[in-house]
Amino acid sequence: MDTYQLIQDRVSIRKFNEKQISDEDTNKILQAAIHAPTAGNMVPYTILKIKNKETLEKLSESCDHQSFIKSADLALIFLVDLNKWHRYLENNNVKAYAQKTNRSYDGPTIADAILGINDALIASESAVIAAESLNIGSCYIGDIMENFEYHKELFDLPDYVFPAAMLVLGHYDSRPKPRYRFDQEYIVFDEKYRQLSDDDLEDMYKEKTKLYNSQDPNIENFAQQFYNRKMGAEFFVEMNRSLDVILEMFKKK
Prior knowledge:
Blueprint lengths: L2 H7 L13 H12 L10 E6 L2 H10 L11 E8 L1 H9 L2 H7 L9 H24 L3 E5 L6 H7 L6 E10 L27 H7 L1 H4 L12 H8 L4 H15 L5
Antiparallel strand pairs: 1-2, 2-4, 3-4
């Protein structure tokens, strides 16, 4: 299968069988991640490789109670890691050099954190594609960004290190069909941003509205149903709280 078709056919797998991922395939997936593009060749991330079933079970609870996580053979947690760079720069007197040149260095900034998120996610997607080429299923777990203090303690994370994404991986017996994506005309604009009209928005979301199935008398349409399940849910409130704590590390007092 060519790479284009592999990407087109890729789906999230949430039901794994008991076949283990070989060490050889695990290493191929990790090497694909490490060789992903990275700003300034900094590689401002660390990958935690999780095989321990007890840890996977803990993650299945802390990541919004998703029981299928514990059935995965492998989890890869992509950490934004500015701790290593910060310590390296400090050890090499960058702060003193910055002062001599009328500048300042006070540790990692929010810009560093955002670039780290970018690079960690780029690396994670390379891992997904590599896994797919090996017939290994994967699923992104954004909920690793929740419960920051718990995950910080669980994985001994120092300052300036935080989870950006998690992948759970494993072999599988069956896979769902690829899900609908929005039409390209609403996602790709030429040269400049195009503000969509209300009619455009209705057309863009027309397939989504077919998923409306709420029995709650307070919910009138798919938009309200989606808000109730996502942005208005407790896990999303917790995610925002954790991200506030994370970004506070990078704000200069």
